Amino acid sequence: MAVKVAEEWLNACSGCEISIVDLGERLLAVLDLVEFVHIPVLLDHKYYGQLGEGKHINIPEATVGIISGSIRNHEHLEVAEEMRRKCQIIIALGTCATHGGIPALANSYRNQEILDRYYHTETTDKVDEYPSEGIPHLLDSVYALDEKIKVDIYLPGCAPHPDQVFAALAGLLAGELPKLPDRSVCDQCPTVREGKGQVKQLRRFLEAPHYGAPDEPIDKMRCLLEQGFLCMGSVTKAGCGGDKIVPRCIAARVPCRGCYGPVQHDGNQLLQMLNALASNGIDIHSLPDYVSLLRFSGAHKLLRPGHKQKEA
């Protein structure tokens, strides 16, 4: 009998769902073994019944529940809690779900500040009251899933690599809990490192790094941090390269921006990156801003009002 799977997206962009579709032919193998009983991004299934006759959100029972996105408003919270009640195993899919993701950058501001900025710009007329009818109320912060419900499996990434999504689903179907490597992007980075003290100041990534000929192998390119570009590989969980191993951004000769979140789930990428820079003799005051070090992991109260981006 097929394993029942329910999937939900909350404060998210659907990139994680695209990773599921990007399984390609492997998705056909998965669909032979699972039955998606609820996945709003792909299937029409209403919260309150197909005719809206229900009084409460109702999601079918399932063995596995996959949730992408963070929790930003009361509807997100209600849906997440219903998924937790109806699913035996909950997977937090993507960094928005595991650590807040890009939406958690809003935690640097109070809700009133965000609404004022949104509705009181130079291109909109000032309003006395903000729209509220039929709109879920905002929570006081953007929350990662495990701040509100119990999470069993974490699959970070913006978006998670399809290889990891497949490995997780295949493992669950075999009765095994998937495990991600507790290693950093630097551990899988093949670039050439010459050691500490190679650079003292950071610069913005506004020019191509030096890597010789365009077709030069990536293992001949010098470490991007040692070229003076902020690269967060040392404080970011490995895995973005999937089975090919080489980190995706590094393969494109672009510095790691930390999209897989901290190496350890409860890590603080901002503090760890500052420590890494200081230990390498790099002036932390040359950072263009500090908030961007938490651009993917600002939930869990790491970003709070008052943490504003420094003007460049």
**Inertia-based shape:** globular
State the helicity in percent bands. Answer: 10-25%
Total of DSSP H or I helical runs spanning 4+ residues: 9
Poorly predicted tracts of residues: none
Pfam families: Oxidored_q6
Protein name: NADH ubiquinone oxidoreductase, 20 kDa subunit
GO cellular component, one term: periplasmic space
Subcellular location: Periplasm
Detailed description of the structure:
- The protein is of the alpha/beta class and 312 residues long.
- The protein folds into 2 domains: 3-106 and 133-173, Rossmann fold; 181-312, no CATH class.
- The protein contains 9 helices and 7 strands, in the order E-H-H-E-E-E-H-E-H-H-E-E-H-H-H-H.
- A 5-stranded parallel sheet has the order 2-1-3-5-7, sandwiched between helices. Strands 4-6 form a two-stranded antiparallel sheet.
Helix and strand topology:
Blueprint: E1 3-9, H1 15-21, H2 25-31, E2 34-38, E3 62-68, E4 71-73, H3 74-86, E5 87-93, H4 95-99, H5 111-119, E6 138-143, E7 153-155, H6 162-173, H7 185-188, H8 248-251, H9 269-279
Parallel strand pairs: 1-2, 1-3, 3-5, 5-7
Antiparallel strand pairs: 4-6
In short:
Helix content is 23%, strand content 12%.
What are the main properties of this structure?
312 residues, alpha/beta, 2 domains, two-stranded antiparallel sheet, 9 helices, globular, periplasm, NiFe_Hase_small_N_sf, oxidoreductase activity
